[in-house]
Amino acid sequence: MGELLFPIAAIFLTLLIVVVSSALSLAVLKNKRQKGSLTGFGSETTFAWLVAPTLIPLTWLVSSAIHQIEPREFVDLCLVDHGIEGCTDSMLLVGFLVAGIVGLVGYRLWREMPRPNYEVLDPGDLALRRVQSIISADERLRTLKVDVVHHSPEPVYTYGFLKPRVVIDACFVCHADDAMLRAALLHEHAHIKSRDTFRNFLVRLTLAISPLGKYLRREFELWRTAREAVCDREAVHHGGDPLALAEGILNAARFRCENPEPSLVALTGAGSALKLRLALLLHGDERLSSGPGYRACLILALLAMCIPHVDNLGVLDYVHVSVEQLLHL
């Protein structure tokens, strides 16, 4: 039974680190939200503060668990101190832990899997040919995979975090000029270049796991709004007409093919964010520079993944011995 307390202690320690680091992240992001600009809140550093408190400790836990159930590790401290039966129970618990985390990630992937429910236009449709003409005239847009469809849930959006695609409703195409369409495509290109669909999934996953995730959801929604403003600036930087983009944003917020009335985006609380986004687009901040947060988070996650497998450091042995000493106090 004593050996079972080692993986239980590892789980408890991981959750404690997640809670403490999430509380610190919440305090930092609240301060950043109050003192900084909207586009500044859409930075890579904000993304790192959202995911790192859960991602890094969880990566460490899973990597450590995998290392502990490797065949060659089975004969180390555990067998010496507890024998084969106690170690088998411990390894089973660690195995269930890894399976549970993998299952949770798989479930979230299944939930986030795109299920498009629209009708793609025929290849000869004028709306499709018009969009293809705009794409072929801009070298930056030629890498986009674009579907022009009927009955889209939104006028323009991007889905898929492994192979993202841009979806444009045919009604939006018919009511937009070429400058508006080009600016909208450049905006979606900025999302794809920044891997925003994947980052949105990663934040939702980590917030679902974290005990304090619900307290960070407001910061997550603000970060998503800020990303829209950042991609607006990117679209203008790469040649999009700011007035055409602003008009496209308004059309997308207000227009629906079946019901060309102001949508909930314009009528509810999101309308204030829309007004701020338009103000920033026309008179606001300069283009957001790349920050170190995303890279720092990636480096820390890689370290958390690799360190448990470096036997010379003896980190896991130290934790194991520390738990053993606490049990004998």
From TrEMBL:
Swiss-Prot/TrEMBL keywords: Membrane, Transmembrane, Transmembrane helix
TM stretches of this protein: 6-29, 41-62, 91-110
InterPro entries reported in the protein's UniProt record: Beta-lactam_resp_regulator (IPR052173), Peptidase_M56 (IPR008756)
Pfam families the record matches: Peptidase_M56
Every Peptidase M56 domain range: 94-281
PANTHER family in alphabetical order: POSSIBLE SENSOR-TRANSDUCER PROTEIN BLAR, SLR0241 PROTEIN
This protein's name: M56 family metallopeptidase
Species of origin: Microvenator marinus
